Amino acid sequence: MGSTQFGNFQNFCRDSTLPICNIFPGFSYENADGSKGGCELLGIPLSHGKHLGNLGSIMLCGIAIAVTAFLLWRSERKQAAVGRREMQVFLVGYILIEICEIFTVGKFPLNNKVRIAFTGIHLGLIIATLWILMLNAVVGYQLLDDGTPMSIGLMVGSAAVLFIGTGYITLDTGYSWTGHFDSSLSGNNRNIALYVLYQLAPLVFLFVFFVLETVLVIRVLGERKPMIYLVSAALLFALGQIFNYVVSVHICNGTHGKIDGALFETLFTLLSVVMIWVFWSSITEDDWPMPVSNTYS
Fold first, then answer.
1. Cβ-contact 163, 124 below 8 angstroms
2. pTM score, whole prediction
3. 120: helix, coil or strand?
């Protein structure tokens, strides 16, 4: 794969504001030389030559935290809903992601070592939370009783393994603890492990989630209306990624580095999470016709 782009982050970091780029020299807050040929996000100038790079994303992260906290509260009121605790675990994970995003994508003027630490936590939370979302789809099939210590324990325990593993690789890369990933700190910033974990694994988890939920709604519940919410969630998420990976550099150049696609990615991801919650809420209503086998109760 040496001649392919697989595993390379240089072009992504040149054109987009991704949290993972904080660990690569040339794309850090203090040194943005790697952005040449793309666009450096400058945001709002502060004193002493510093800048607040992404105020829009920071504000949207705050809104996302507030909205998700409300959904968390609403979930608590749905006492009889299937997968209530599991959905709450997902929402808590998303809140933690948004807190980290303030300091990684928001481009606060932080010490670089502190920013790398936030980046390791952020990436670990992304993988772990999407894994939890995928398991939320499995919960609907009632292979285990939902909300039990075993169900929650397996979900959180397996997510913790992914969180620790991803976080360690990120921190080892950024801090050069072992030197194993030092080759990714230059050139094309090639890091196969993080590419698989950060770029590919989330797509697999999301694909499995949408497939399992589609089968559940159409084949088990025999309904169509909830699919509107599920498809909307998928489209909103995809739109956010398009803004972040494709449109971002054009927005950045057009606004002379004031904003880029990260702001819109934060917005559309929030809307996608809201639609996922609405979808979950709609299929846990008391008036759904249950199949004779009581597969989903």
1. yes
2. 0.91
3. helix
Beta strands 44-45 and 51-52, pairing class: antiparallel
H helices present in the chain, as ranges? 10-15, 55-77, 84-104, 112-139, 149-175, 192-194, 201-215, 225-242, 248-254, 261-283
Render pLDDT for 135-182 as a digit per residue (tens, 0 to 9): 999 998 888 778 789 999 999 999 999 999 999 999 999 999 999 999
Between CA 54 and CA 61 the distance in angstroms is 11
Q: What is residue 219's DSSP assignment?
A: I
Residue 16 CB-half CA count within 13 A: 21
Do 58 and 117 form a contact (C-beta atoms < 8 A)? no
- Residue by residue, DSSP assigns 40-63 as ----EE-GGG-EETTHHHHHHHHH
- Asked if 82 and 290 touch (Cβ cutoff 8 Å), the reply is no
Maximum CA extent, the chain: 69
What are the pLDDT digits (tens) for 44-73? Answer: 877 776 778 788 899 999 999 999 999 999
Q: Is-contact 54 43, C-beta < 8 A?
A: yes
Q: Choose among 135, 283, 123, 121: nearest CA to 205.
A: 135
Residue given tokens 């968390």 in the structure block: 72
Please calculate the CA angle 170-172-177 and round it to the nearest 5 degrees: 165
